[in-house]
Please model this.
Amino acid sequence: MKTKSSTTIRDVARLANVSIGTVSRVLNDRPAVSEKTRGRVRSAIEELDYTPNPIARQLSIGRSLTIGIIQPYITLPSYIERLHGVQNVLANSEYDLVIFNVDNPAQRNAYFKDLSYKIRVDGVLIVSLPPSDEQVEYFSKARIPIVLIDAYHPKMFCIIADDVKGARIATRHLLKLGHRKIAYLSDYVDSPFHPSMKYRFLGYREVLKEAGIPFNPAYVIEGPRGRTNAQAMAKQLLELKDPPTAIFAACDTQAIGVIDAAQEMGLKVPERLSVIGYDNIPDAAYHNLTTIDQSLQDSGARGAQMLLDVLGDPKKSPCTQYVNINLLRRKTTAPPPS
Amino acid sequence: MKTKSSTTIRDVARLANVSIGTVSRVLNDRPAVSEKTRGRVRSAIEELDYTPNPIARQLSIGRSLTIGIIQPYITLPSYIERLHGVQNVLANSEYDLVIFNVDNPAQRNAYFKDLSYKIRVDGVLIVSLPPSDEQVEYFSKARIPIVLIDAYHPKMFCIIADDVKGARIATRHLLKLGHRKIAYLSDYVDSPFHPSMKYRFLGYREVLKEAGIPFNPAYVIEGPRGRTNAQAMAKQLLELKDPPTAIFAACDTQAIGVIDAAQEMGLKVPERLSVIGYDNIPDAAYHNLTTIDQSLQDSGARGAQMLLDVLGDPKKSPCTQYVNINLLRRKTTAPPPS
DNA sequence: CTGAAAGCGCTAACAA
DNA sequence: TTGTTAGCGCTTTCAG
Model:
């Protein structure tokens, strides 16, 4: 197949009466060009409305100048937040970002394998998808820098939040307010796509134990993500003979669903029911939701920056950075009704 | 800069004792290769764990084998639906998809301009972003096929839904049930990013007029997207001295917000208030929302298919396809309270 | 400071 | 059926 007859570096060279080498030099802002010829080349470029072919450039320099991000559920607010963080730092780099959305485990595995050949990117960010040891093997064969965000593996670069700690903070907050009947509502605790759920649950249990509160399985409910689902689950909790006075929801979207349920049942929040979420998505502020802020944007930004660093210095060895976590007291938590 | 020392077609050729031409042939499934050598090449490929460099291939064949999709708000359910449609058809093609997310008009304009040079894609899908005549000029300079989804321009390939018609259907449905006090709740009618809003509003007004119902500005409210915002807006509507008996929300997310409001105020749906949405997003089924189905997935799929067709036959001339629209009666509409 | 020329890894005539 | 070779459009030595 014949290639598009677009203007090439050669056309520019001809018009400016220089060699293609020189054009390339001005294209890449190399110093070794006299101002005079540089000017001539510039106008030629202008006149021809020339723009370099990135593919040729990539082949020549041996890099694709794009980095990939593999993440599940691009539609969830928390993922979007992190994505924004990534985009912000990449915007100032020479790299483009391409998004690989993962809808199911098979797809995830496919991408992970493809990393070693098909996907030609210079680096990749993997979000919330903890790789198995075997997969880490694939990765090392791929020989491209990878950083994990919201997932951990000892042999890889990681940006993580300490979910156990966050959950502890949330639970303690409720405890300090005087609650004893604290329920935990979350996404499936063992979901391969939401590894944090497990750790948040751990933090919750730990603190309860510390406080000498016996674990009550009836106070734990898990189910699919989504505000509406959470509403239904919360309702179940609130219809117990001995309902909780506080609910810790493992993510803000679910916390908002809990508020819906309370409202539906005529329970004032926080007077009759305290609700605390996790993530601090934008909507949380709107609902005045007390929550755990885990610097979502920042985690994306730092992941991207870390990748850029590794790209700049491939000899760096794996390390993990922790993201800040803190309690954001807003208006949905208060002492329990007396 | 030195290129990665990855294995190339030459290594395979050497190992299999053939020329690189032959390797290329088996790589591309060309017939003119004896089964014997084909086998030899295959094992060499296997043994070396070789995978062709797509960038080199792209440069050679003069195509990037990727198509771009420019769309606003990748986070909204309706966009995700369309995206799935696109991905489904592209999955069976030789093309990769890269997503360009638009957050604001400046970004949109940048992408539109870049189309003519920076973004090297073989074709692009533009969703919900009606181009100006001037922009269509840029596009023609870009010389790559473009199809518009959910947007119209006479000189371009388009996949659209007749929003006026959809709104008519919705409004008539309410009318037939006996409603006379029908409110309209929507995203900003003049949003540059949601052109359909304008048409849906038109359909609503038309039908009211036909029915001889005077237009009541108090029954029209617009505001930012989002379930929670819609809830607040609906509340306003329902607190009027003479509240509507039915609300037509211009998108499902907002319709769900309306249901929230009704619930908050203790108004049974549909007994006391009828609600109809638009789009038929997955959540709509969950809420039993009566709505207008506009085949979102299908619109994405057809757009992608149309683009593939043009890519296959560049001489095709612009045409526009309409997507199916129909009323989905579920449980949120009923005759008005007597 | 500038030009010539050798690749980057692959495809696609053209010969053999 | 296979090998040879000339590009694709750019970057980057290496001379001059």
Summary: Residues 1, 18-22, 25, 32-34, 37, 56, 58-62 of chain A lie near DNA strand C (CB under 10 Å from a C1'). Residues 296-312 of chain A form the longest helix (17 residues). Residues 249 and 255 of chain A are 5 Å apart (CA to CA).
